[in-house]
Write a structure and sequence with these properties.
Two copies of one chain form a homodimer. With 208 residues, the first copy, chain A, is an all-alpha fold. Helix content of chain A is 82%, strand content 0%. The longest helix of chain A has 25 residues. The model of chain A has no long low-confidence stretch (mean pLDDT 94). At the A-B interface, helix 1, helix 6, helix 7, helix 8 and helix 9 of A face helix 1, helix 6, helix 7, helix 8 and helix 9 of B.
DNA sequence: GTCTATATCGGGATAGAC
DNA sequence: GTCTATCCCGATATAGAC
């Protein structure tokens, strides 16, 4: 019992590491087994095949991300406070686990229909999150732009540089240490950028 | 001669399609051969192995992207005009070839050292582009924030939603037609957002 | 240059003993 | 539950004829 729980946990941790870093096609069952300290046969004993293990890993990753977003944006605060917390949390979290988002995006790109089911099985209601953001945009900032655009703007500013980290480093020849500084700087930069960007959407803004 | 050129072209087109959509690990030499209307042996005659063919495809894709960016941002216009053109161009181009950026990002994530060489062999000078943006930010808008942050902000707002398209569609249950509308809307939305976001960086801005 | 045939190997999956 | 041994297919790559 105790042993089986241990094994299960070890498998999931190993699978997570390998799938997150190498994706479905790049991952090897052998590598997962090695990392978990067991052999392939036992891996198949717990998860009939690679697909099912992958789905489990995807489900965990997606759930973790989505839950945290829900937690932040459905809480009781002003929208700008939520955005500030979101930016700080994700720039901390993601820069340590940059591969997670890329993993989710790639997984969904490779097998959209299959994983859509996985997503729907969770009891998240992302529409609620949008409604809440829309409501706060209207009431607190007099903005009635589609909240999805705003949400995507925020995500883009925070998430894209993490995804593109290797690209940015290669193009501009930036060493790792400087990238750490870069991400730390972004907390302030992005917050300011969003705060001001939103002003353009205010109903009575002369620029619109 | 004529025939060989034709074959070479067919191979590159086929390889591009397959690699862009499925990445290195997901791509099959057989599929590329089929798509090019030849067989595997001939494929290996032109490109000794999968790696070399992949590098060629990566080089082409990266070069195409980088050149277009250079062309836009090194031209003779105001920075805001460039940004407007960039947004329109990329939201048109990328929404038709969404996989290209994802392909580049994934490739660079999988084999950063190997592809860094490929990038350096091209005669692009990305630092020049940053310098130019920095100069225009200072002279035209009185902003002396690191131009890399601004550049990344712009890219994030434009590129991220394309990368995350399947994610967005799955989460919020958005059909394809509505996504087309969404991307069309973003041209205006993002332009406004950036224009106003930049105001926060002006030296004499009371908010900073 | 282009083909058919084949070598070779790696990786997912299963059988069956303990 | 955990292991060893093995099956079997798919994929890259090469040999060699035309």
């Amino acid at each position: 019992m105790d042993n089986s729980q241990n094994t299960e946990v070890k498998i999931l941790e190993a699978a997570r590491d390998v799938f997150h870093h190498k994706g479905f096609n790049g991952a090897r069952m052998q590598e997962i087994a090695d990392l978990a300290g067991i052999n392939k046969a036992l891996l198949h004993y717990y998860y009939r095949n690679k697909e099912s293990l992958f789905e489990r890993v995807f489900n965990d990753a997606f759930s973790q991300m989505a839950c945290k977003m829900n937690e932040i944006f459905l809480s009781e605060m002003t929208l700008m406070s939520k955005i500030g917390i979101f930016i700080n949390f994700y720039l901390n979290f993601i820069s340590r686990h940059s591969y997670v988002v890329q993993f989710i995006i790639n997984a969904l790109h490779d097998k959209p229909e299959q994983l859509r089911e996985v997503i729907l099985k969770q009891n998240l209601v992302p529409e609620l999150l949008l409604k809440q953001i829309g409501k706060q945009l209207r009431e607190e900032m007099d903005i009635d732009t589609d909240p999805l655009h705003i949400y995507v703007n925020i995500l883009g500013l925070v998430v894209f540089p993490v995804l593109a980290k290797p690209l940015i480093q290669s193009m501009f020849q930036i060493p790792d240490e400087k990238m750490d500084v870069f991400f730390e700087q972004r907390k302030k930069i992005v917050t300011t950028f969003i705060a001001n960007g939103l002003k353009g959407y205010e109903k009575n803004n002369s620029l619109v």
